[in-house]
Write a structure and sequence with these properties.
Layout lengths: L1 E4 L14 H10 L2 E5 L10 H6 L3 E3 L2 H4 L4 E3 L6 H6 L5 E4 L7 H9 L3 E4 L14 H20 L7 E3 L2 E3 L3 E5 L3 H12 L3 E5 L5 H7 L3 E2 L20 H16 L3 E4 L14 H5 L6 E4 L16 E4 L2 E4 L9 H18 L1 E2 L4 E2 L6 H6 E4 L2 E2 L2 H7 L1
Parallel strand pairs: 1-2, 1-4, 2-3, 4-5, 5-6, 9-10, 9-12, 10-11, 12-13, 13-15
Antiparallel strand pairs: 6-18, 7-8, 14-15, 16-17, 18-19
Helix pairs in contact: 1-11, 6-7, 6-11
Length: 376
């Protein structure tokens, strides 16, 4: 069975979907691995490293796309989809609820499309979970980016010239990205406060040495996939009042609240920004899906009344080496998990809970029930 990994066509993408070490693992499984020439250039991995691992290097992208399996990071273009073979298994981050045209094109091409961002958040699937691996890096980068731009230092310092108070960091959302942001800010010596609508997240916040902002919102909870449930208008208003007070006394605010497949909730309003101290920094990690911050703009860093609002997308791209390592490992683990060693074949077991969660098109149809309903 032939696996082809093409170069990413997005000029902003810095990551590589497969590293040479993981290519070698797949070759040992019995897969015929082929990568597009120059795929690892952005992270300093030469074509020769892939060849040494047993993979082939292709300079014929169009012909190579006819492989049995094609794996990449971003969305395939319509041109690439046209060259995929009938029955091809395509593995990537499809963000399917926001890209219905691509999903329809994959279905029409009779491609079995695996959306890695749809993999269930179960224990057995953790090793394949690209959302978790990449969000963790984004949370880390958010703090480093804010620290670099801020005119203060994060840790407390006691010197003969006087004592410098620690910077105050407020993290909104204690999911994977939020927890990593909390941990990073604490390691840098900041005083960290954090908020999450899920009551069970408070223990996680405390375990990292941060102080949870406690707001009595009444009944809240999370979905079966681990995401926070949507709040009522009354709950949102109460939450914003408490967070407005916290934002006003914070040097750095990092928002991480996303709702999969839907627009990100508005959390930090312009009125809240107006109460923040000049020189403060806000990093919006949900800017790709509409943003948690009213004034944030995709791909821009803007100043509003002395407050810097950072809306840079996909922060994990700023650390492409570990981001590529994690993504490559996630993809390799997925293929290994469903690989039939005797037949040397990737098998999509339609009865498997992981496949049911992430297989979005198959044999000419959109097969994921929720996605099919949303697109129809």
């Amino acid at each position: 069975m032939r696996l082809f990994v093409p170069r990413e066509t997005n000029p902003d993408e810095t990551r590589a979907a497969l590293l040479a070490t993981d290519a070698g693992k797949l070759v040992k499984l019995g897969a015929e691995v082929e990568v597009e020439a120059g795929m690892g250039d952005s992270i300093g991995v030469a074509d020769a490293a892939y060849e040494k691992a047993g993979a082939k290097v292709s300079d014929q992208r169009t012909a190579s796309l006819a492989a049995d399996i094609v794996a990449q990071i971003g969305l395939p273009s319509n041109e690439d989809i046209a060259h995929l073979g009938k029955g091809c298994i395509h593995i990537s981050v499809l963000d399917p609820f926001n890209n219905p045209k691509t999903i329809k094109a994959l279905a029409a091409a009779k491609v079995s499309a695996i959306s890695l961002d749809m993999i269930p958040r179960s224990t057995i699937a953790q090793k394949m979970d690209v959302l978790t691996s990449q969000a963790s890096l984004a949370g880390y980068v958010a703090v480093v980016l804010a620290a670099e731009r801020h005119k203060k230092i994060l840790p407390m310092m006691m010197t003969p010239a006087g004592t410098i108070s620690p910077a105050r960091v407020f993290v909104i959302g204690a999911g994977v990205a939020g927890l990593q942001a909390i941990a990073t800010a604490k390691r840098l010596g900041a005083r960290v406060d954090a908020f999450d609508v899920r009551p069970e997240a408070q223990d996680q916040i405390r375990s990292l040495g941060a102080k949870p902002l406690v707001v009595d919102l009444g009944e809240t909870g999370q979905t079966k996939d681990g995401y926070a449930k949507k709040l009522t208008d009354e709950q949102l208003a109460k939450q914003r009042d408490a967070m407005a007070r916290q934002c006003a006394q914070s040097d750095i605010v990092i928002t991480t609240a996303k709702v999969f497949g839907r627009k990100a909730p508005l959390i930090v309003t312009n009125a809240m920004l107006d109460e923040m101290m000049p020189g403060s920094i806000v990093v919006d990690l949900a800017v790709e899906t509409g943003g948690n911050v009213e004034a944030s703009e995709l791909g821009k860093e803007i100043e509003r009344k002395g407050v810097l609002i950072v809306g840079q997308p996909e922060l994990q791209r700023r650390v492409p080496v570990p981001a590529s390592q994690m993504f490559s490992s996630n993809v390799t683990n997925f293929i290994e998990h469903f690989w039939d060693k005797d037949a040397k074949h990737l098998t999509l077991d339609r009865d498997d809970a992981i496949i049911q969660g992430c297989l979005v098109t198959h044999a000419g149809d959109i097969v994921h029930p929720a996605l099919k309903e949303a697109i129809d």
